[in-house]
Amino acid sequence: KSWARTLSARSTNPSPRPISTATLQPLTNFVPPSAAGQTGTALMAQQLLSSRSRLLSASAIDRSYLADHALSISDPDAYWSEIAANNYHWEKSFDASTVLKYNFHASKGPIHIEWFKGGKTNISYNVVDRWAEDTPEKTALIFEGNDPSETASYTFKELKAKVFRVANVLKAKGVKKGDRVALYLPMTVDLPISMLACARIGAVHSVVFGGFSSDALAARIKDSGSKVLITADGVGRGEKVINLKSIADTAMDSLGAEDQVETCLVLERLNEEQLKDNPTASHRDPSRDVDFAAACAAVSDDCPVTWMDAEDPLFILYTSGSTGTPKGVLHTTGGYMVYSGETFRNVFDYKGAPSDIFWCTADCGWITGHSYLAYGPLLSGCTSIVFEGVPNYPDASRFWSTVERHKVTQFYTAPTALRALMREGDEPVKKHDLSSLRILGTVGEPINPAAWDWYNEIVGKGNCPIVDTWWQTETGGHMLTPLPNKWPLKPGSATLPFYGVAPALIDPSSEEELEGNDVHGHLCMKQPWPGMARSLWNNHERFEEVYFSQFDGYYCTGDGAQRDEDGYFWVTGRVDDVLIVSGHNIGTAEVESSFVGHGDVAEAAVVGFPHEVKGEAIYCYVTLNQGVEGSEDLRWELKKKVAEELGAFCRPDVVHFTPALPKTRSGKIMRRILRKIADPSETDKLLAGDLECLGDISTLADEAIVHDLVEGLREPC
Ligand code: WT7
């Protein structure tokens, strides 16, 4: 079939031909952007650039990239229709004359984005049927359990049978096209298989990360209106056992009659011993709970495909915003398929070699796992690893022993994991043969110089391009990213836009787009790319408000960025109240409302501070009700409350009791000041009475509060 042979014509362009060096200036006189209002990770990226400028010799950007990128922006219809038609099966072709229709101007009417209108396809068919026919015996998924002795692999033919069975179970439980299915599962192959099963029958999957609490799960089930939940009794993570079923039970029990889950499919994952220690994991409600494996065994392994319109919903994935409840980011079928596949092949240099073994360490509960564990690689027929464990179990060489054992060629992880592993020294890496590695990737937050160096030298032995990929849940796939060997890397920079991506930096005060290089502003996008979110589930108004209301005509990412003298992008961190902790988005508003929900708390303000391993950590200023004393017990109780309500990864690092918060006369909390006081690198100066780093504090209603806050730094928090 044509799609198999022509797979990604564009990623197999002839080798790069350097362009004239005249278009590239050496970076010697780079001035780091102002640090005002930026968080810790942001600053690390800047330091990196200034310290590395000298490494760069005058070099060049691949000509074919420049030409293709220019075409992808000036004629997206022509550009993307060729890729879509050549690489995917469309049951009915899309209308090639209007591949993209959109409005980005809130001032001109509703925001809408449509790609490949008129086309009918199915992403699961493009993963499963296509490769089961073409390369049936090729390994699709490799499972690497929490216990390293537990591994398994599944060919595309086996994947097909498994996906079809789960699809039939869902159908038997009444799931129809457009219905939502919540997945709260450990990282076994059952998770990507269940996603693919939903997609096969047109159901919309809503994966909830297994580290989320029962409240977070309940809120997501309710908002998405999922009537079916697939979960597991539990999962081993490192030494610990997470009792998923009891969390799911608490979530389901908390839902009102209208929001009830009708069927809960339970994967039995725990062994006898683990069950003995977690008796509630064995609890089953016979009116609702069904043994997942038994149900799969009882149905046929053949299941007809449901053809979908290009713009039919594919999945919902919740992400934190700067205000309010989590946002149900909605992705649709055709555009997401084309974009996740195309970015995968280009960014990870996948050209169809059977020896390529791709490992993305992210959980499918995040967008990274959706696009680069499940869809991107499998759409391309590439072997993908599903890792259930954690980086430091049984020891700090887990990643590297796994790379060696499975001969991983492309490895994709988060800076926070690298920083944690770096602390363990080089020995755990050096004792393994990592010669299979070809490309190394990072995602989730800016990568700091030390971690970049270590990744490059110790892990990659200087031979593997590092792709620092900047993107978001909302973007569906990579946006700013190196393409291996197409242009020189600068450690800490996500470099240049992917095909179809038209970034703009906007000056927040003038609301004007900043032209030229060596500028810093709010990172926005001028036109749609196929993988972008189309809406927020059941809340298109909020979609318009969050992403399109700041600057008319632009999608606003919420990040700040610098474009350097060579036109390279440096993402400098969030410009809103979202924290990126260990690469996970956490809305300060959510943490604050959890605090305020405690009877003793009057008010709370949450900011991030630089943290060696997590990148950013959570610092909470809390004022207590009259007559309540801040104690170590209360501090512990509050941290526990947040962890229980939002998920363990949201547990605050510091709780700072204060008599009041610094506010302007109009009552706005001055977070800029709170961020400085939370920053450990400022503590000594502040305690010595040097308040210069706080900047202008004269707009505060009560300046004395600053002194109370600084004094509070003397207490252990
Ligand atoms: C936010 C999106 C994309 C999957 C994981 C996170 C930050 C992400 C980078 C990077 C600097 C990065 C941004 C972005 N971010 N990748 N390579 N360099 N910052 O998805 O949870 O939607 O978070 O993560 O701040 O806006 P997400």
From TrEMBL:
**Residue ranges of domain AMP-dependent synthetase/ligase in the record:** 129-534
Q: What SUPFAM superfamilies does UniProt report for this protein, alphabetically? A: Acetyl-CoA synthetase-like
Signal peptide annotation: none
Give the catalysed reaction(s), semicolon-separated: acetate + ATP + CoA = acetyl-CoA + AMP + diphosphate
Molecular function terms from GO: acetate-CoA ligase activity; AMP binding; ATP binding
Residue ranges annotated for the Acetyl-coenzyme A synthetase N-terminal domain, each copy included = 65-127
- GO terms of biological process kind: acetyl-CoA biosynthetic process from acetate
This protein's UniProt keywords: ATP-binding, Ligase, Nucleotide-binding
Q: What is its EC number?
A: 6.2.1.1
Q: Which domain of life is it from?
A: Eukaryota
Question: Does Chaperone show up as a keyword for this record?
Answer: no
Using the record's annotation, list all stretches that form the AMP-binding enzyme C-terminal domain: 590-668
Per the similarity annotation, which family is this?
Answer: Belongs to the ATP-dependent AMP-binding enzyme family.
User: PANTHER family, alphabetically?
Assistant: ACETYL-COENZYME A SYNTHETASE, ACETYL-COENZYME A SYNTHETASE 1
Protein name from the UniProt record:
Acetyl-coenzyme A synthetase
**Source organism:** Triparma strigata
Ranked from the top, the taxonomy reads:
Eukaryota, Sar, Stramenopiles, Ochrophyta, Bolidophyceae
